[in-house]
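Q&A log
Question type: sequence-to-structure
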Amino acid sequence: MEFQDVVRRRRMVRRYTPEPVAESSLSRILDNAVRAPSAGFSQGWSFVVLDTPEDVARYWAVFAGDSEPPTQPAGDDRWLAGMRTAPVLVIPCSSKAAYLARYAEPDKGWEDRAEARWPMPFWHMDTAMAVQNMLLTVVDEGLGACYFGIPPSSDVAVREAFGIPAEWDPVGVVSIGHPDLQGPSAQGSPARRTRKARGEVVHRGRW
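Response status: OK
Response body:
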């Protein structure tokens, strides 16, 4: 698929068919995730892959305490029902400790490992770029995906359920599968809002 087509076709998919995701596709998605850039080549990301019905069910059992995401109208459970159909969930995690340690190495020299030296949390930003690589590769594989957050109330339970170490932070979940284009699905924000024109968001020379 042409790159421009991949970018234009990328959207958040909220319902999937029962068809499994091929291991070759999943491998390519993850291979491309780790090709994302990272500050100092720190590579402070890790990915918890849930690709069996049992593991996917374990995630939703942990998530069950929240009936809907905060962005959905009260009582609208279509989002959750649709997301539960995904055959694969990937939990990307970032590590601040990996970046602080990397920049304390001789070629960087920030021996005090002070977080204040960082203008932005690059550990989260770099992991987000890895997620974007995943989302684009999903489209190129003829699949669908959706990135969504983990409610703060579920953070500890998710960590415990999947053995995520304390120095790693889950930054959300990516659902992956074959889009169900026929079944009912909650409409995302793009169905209610128009995309901003480039002229509204691009500022040349100054704001």
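Response note: The CA atoms of residues 94 and 124 lie 6 Å apart.
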